[in-house]
């Protein structure tokens, strides 16, 4: 372990943080969270952080207590005279609120950035933001990592010369196209329309998938409605098989039921968000090695660009 570095975890990401710390060659720091009867809570560092580079690992998926716990921990580290505070946020919640897509709504991602900076972060480390421009919401450095570093080798192992990359919607076309170029495969896109959030009204396929092994790529899987509908549509169009690679396993509402009953051969996700339940169709790849290596390179002031296989 490098001198002057301590890694701590919020309660939502403790398992992942322990793995990151172990890979880094450190022991996870001691944090105590006091809970009051009315639901209020207070995290405290049970060891000195004075003059230390403090890494706080916490994904900010719902409930919002996860975000607020991170903010309290950052504030506590700053008031305890930490030298630098780096918020390691494997899953950056509220990232879908990156712009005003209709009148009288908040830009939630910008608000989160403001709160983190107000709390005292010196740097943010995160993975596969829903919208790249969120990096610009911060006035501190942001290390934006990509799961493609992990997914690419998995896809390469599946490549039997019959693969075709696919995006579940037009918004994911850029990501799917990057994989397609790297793997030298074709590209298919699903065009969808929504009447309201989390509900797909209709979907059509652009591209020929007949006889192909389709690989769907996306940054997250929430209710799995789009993903499972796309898989069904590809199979109807003559696809041989459909796999999906999604970084963040949000998997809310009927997601697990939909995936288990879907035409998907397999859904590969990372552990940026811990799975709520197990499924034979879901395989998890850990991001611990990636984050621990980037932390090590950051401390040594080394480049991390080698991790950007596809961006």
UniProtKB/TrEMBL annotation:
One of its GO terms (molecular function) is kinase activity. Residues 5-120 form the Ribose-phosphate pyrophosphokinase N-terminal domain. This is Ribose-phosphate pyrophosphokinase. It holds the Pfam family Pribosyltran_N. PROSITE patterns: PRPP_SYNTHASE. Pathway: Metabolic intermediate biosynthesis; 5-phospho-alpha-D-ribose 1-diphosphate biosynthesis; 5-phospho-alpha-D-ribose 1-diphosphate from D-ribose 5-phosphate (route I): step 1/1. NCBIfam families: PRK01259.1, ribP_PPkin. Transmembrane segments: none annotated. Keywords: ATP-binding, Cytoplasm, Kinase, Magnesium, Metal-binding, Nucleotide biosynthesis, Nucleotide-binding, Transferase. Its EC number is 2.7.6.1. It is an enzyme of class 2 (transferase). InterPro entries: PRib_PP_synth_CS, Pribosyltran_N, PRTase-like, PRTase_dom, Rib-P_diPkinase. One of its GO terms (biological process) is ribonucleoside monophosphate biosynthetic process. Involved in the biosynthesis of the central metabolite phospho-alpha-D-ribosyl-1-pyrophosphate (PRPP) via the transfer of pyrophosphoryl group from ATP to 1-hydroxyl of ribose-5-phosphate (Rib-5-P). Belongs to the ribose-phosphate pyrophosphokinase family. Class I subfamily. One of its GO terms (cellular component) is ribose phosphate diphosphokinase complex. It catalyses: D-ribose 5-phosphate + ATP = 5-phospho-alpha-D-ribose 1-diphosphate + AMP + H(+). It comes from the Bacteria. Its cofactor is Mg(2+). Gene3D superfamilies: 3.40.50.2020.
């Amino acid at each position: 372990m490098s001198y002057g570095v301590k890694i701590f975890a919020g309660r939502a990401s403790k398992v992942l943080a322990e793995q990151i710390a172990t890979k880094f060659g450190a022991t996870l720091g001691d944090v105590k969270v006091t809970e009051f009867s009315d639901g209020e809570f207070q995290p405290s560092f049970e060891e000195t952080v004075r003059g230390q580079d403090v890494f706080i690992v916490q994904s900010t998926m719902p409930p919002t207590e996860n975000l607020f716990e991170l903010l309290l921990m950052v504030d506590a580290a700053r008031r305890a005279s930490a030298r630098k505070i780096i918020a390691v946020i494997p899953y950056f919640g509220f990232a879908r609120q990156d712009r005003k897509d209709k009148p009288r709504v908040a830009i939630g991602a910008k608000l989160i950035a403001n709160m983190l900076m107000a709390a005292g972060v010196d740097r943010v480390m995160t993975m596969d933001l829903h919208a790249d421009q969120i990096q610009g919401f911060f006035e501190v450095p942001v290390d934006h990592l990509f799961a493609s570093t992990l997914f690419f080798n998995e896809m390469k192992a599946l490549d039997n010369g019959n693969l075709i990359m696919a995006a579940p919607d037009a918004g994911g076309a850029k990501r799917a196209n990057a994989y397609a170029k790297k793997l030298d495969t074709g590209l298919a896109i699903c065009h969808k329309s929504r009447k309201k959030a989390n509900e797909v009204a209709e979907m059509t396929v652009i591209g020929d998938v007949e006889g192909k092994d389709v690989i769907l790529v996306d940054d997250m899987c929430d209710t799995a409605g789009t993903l499972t509908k796309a898989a069904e549509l590809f199979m109807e169009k003559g696809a041989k098989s459909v796999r999906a690679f999604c970084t963040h396993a949000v998997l809310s509402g009927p997601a697990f039921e939909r995936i288990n009953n879907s035409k998907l051969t397999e859904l590969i996700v990372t552990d940026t968000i811990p799975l709520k339940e197990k499924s034979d169709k879901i395989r998890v790849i850990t991001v611990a090695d990636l984050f621990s290596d980037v932390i090590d390179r950051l401390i040594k002031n080394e480049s991390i660009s080698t991790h950007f296989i596809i961006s």
